[in-house]
Amino acid sequence: MKSGLMVVGVDRYLSGPQLARLLAIAPGARPYYRVLAQSVRSLVLDGRLPVRVRMPAERHLAEALGVSRTTVTAAYDLLREQGYLESRQGAGSWTALPDAGSLGADNPWIAAEDDGLLPMHTAAPSAISTLPEAIAAVTGQYPRYTLGTGYDPLGIAPLRQAIAARYSARGVATRPEQILVTTGAQQAIHLVTTMLLSRGDPVLLESPTYPHAIDLARMRGARIVGVGIPDGGWRHLDLLTCAMRQSAARLAYVIPDFQNPTGHLMDDAARAALAGAARRYGTVLVVDESWCELALDEEARATPLAAFDTDGRVITIGSASKLWWGGLRIGWVRTTAATVRRLAVLRASIDIASPLFEQLVVARLFEDIEGARAERARLLGASRDALAAELAARMPDWSFVPPRGGGSLWVRLPEPSATSLADAAACQGVRLAPGQWFGVDGTLEGRLRLPFTQPPRVLVEAVRRIAEARLRGAYGTRPAEPLTPAL
Q: Residue 180, Cβ neighbours under 10 Å: how many?
């Protein structure tokens, strides 16, 4: 017997009393089945309960814990849904790890906005102050558009012209014919990956990266090649370019502007080198610029990566979500005119076109884009500073580098416990995003993404609750009156 495990040949298993001793659940914890499942999951994630260990039968564990069998059955069901338990009829259940990036039954992306938890898992700012004015102005123009069919697969001309003009102003000459309007950046990424990737194709992803990009690569059946991002950002491209060459990646998805979640900004020299490497190795660069307009320090600006493109292999994704408001659901693709037409044919099988009214609103908002940038820089800058100061005061053993733009801190924890901390924080009314969500191979358990897209008052309260969660663990109940983030 070793480490509390009984070993018979190659089959390892735990008895009910052995697992009960490992769990050490506090008296009065509730709901008990969920706390039990969280405790087992924490044991697996920190290595105290190895993978492929057979779990005690539900009846035996119930007897050891002094609870009903129904409670244990509910906990086992939850663990199976989350991917931490596998079962086979007649063979029992054993511990497992979910597919990397799998969020199981408690997927936060489908959580209700009014579920009572502070949404510290999502880096989504509230609407810009000029949005109501833009909506009112467009409402008067809307009736004349009803004379047509109401949809344009490429996007309405005024919006495509505005997006093209913005790219030209940023240093990369662009015609409206090079723009495809999409229903959010997420659809843009989906269309591009669907067009370019076939099952088994290698695709290069930064790690950490945007979680939904990982999901899309898996949906396409692509072979994911993860490249770790150094703590200092892309000062040297050796890891990235070597992976590109060795994997023969058909596509590389990168976020050079205030990378999500690290906040790193790639400088112009690195961008030129990356574009050159893509030419040499035949890789298409899909560049996500969703955060590019969110510079908090004016000097934190860089030339669009597409400006270094000489053969049409840089495809740029943009979005209205971060600068103006996510509820608009408008994104776009900048690429060659020929590729725009291919993508438009592909998207016709999905939704034909993006909503007309939202396109008109975004076209109007482009008229004062500098005002929107200044407002976001002021508000997000204050929130970033408030979050950083509160973390330094309450969690001085956490380390991070405040970014010069974007919307989140990428925090290094003193121990690899982000998932357990997220469980505990939920009991205190805060929903967190553990680093594991952003790792292409399910790693980064010692990291936490903390967005600063909420007002300072909400962030200070969230940090207070997180500090309480560190002390109390994943037990107890949520606060009776959660602080609403909609201030």
A: 28
Say which residues have a Cβ less than 8 Å from residue 389's Cβ, sequence separation at least 6: none
Q: How many CA atoms lie within 13 A of 366 on its CB side?
A: 20
Backbone angles phi, psi at 54, to 5 degrees: -75, 130
pLDDT for res 412? 96
Share of the chain above pLDDT 90, in %: 65
Measured in degrees and rounded to the nearest 5, phi and psi for residue 246 equal -70, -30
**What is the C-alpha to C-alpha distance for residues 178 and 125, in angstroms, rounded to an integer?**
29
DSSP of 171-189: TS---GGGEEEESHHHHHH
Whole-number Cα distances in Å, 7 to 11, 12, 16, 69, 176: 6, 5, 15, 26, 67
- Pairing, β 11-13 against β 53-54: parallel
Tell me the chain's radius of gyration from C-alpha atoms.
24
Task: Using the predicted structure, report yes or no on whether residue 476 has a pLDDT greater than 50.
Answer: no
Rounded Cα–Cα distance for residues 445 and 100 (Å)? 12
Distance CA 226, CA 254 (A): 11
In order, the DSSP letters of 225-250 are: EEEEPPTT-SS--HHHHHHHHHHT-S
The confidence band for 113, taking pLDDT boundaries of 50, 70 and 90, is: low
Give the SS3 label for residue 2.
strand
Residues 6+ apart with CB under 8 A from 157: 176
d(CA 336, CA 462): 45
CB-based burial label for 195 (10 Å; 0-12, 13-18, 19+): middle
38's enclosing H/E stretch is helix 32-45
Written as one letter, the residue type at 445 is: E
Q: What are phi and psi of 190, to 5 degrees?
A: -60, -45
DSSP-derived secondary structure for 358-427 = HHHHHHHHGGGHHHHHHHHHHHHHHHHHHHHHHHHHH-TT-B----SBSSEEEEEPSSS-HHHHHHHHHH
| Mean model confidence pLDDT for the chain | 88
How far apart are the C-alpha atoms of 480 and 147, rounded to whole Å? 52
Provide the strand spans (E) within 289-330.
314-319
* For residues 33-46, average pLDDT: 81
Q: Please tell me what DSSP assigns to residue 5.
A: B
Q: What's the CA gap between 107 and 116, in Å, rounded?
A: 16
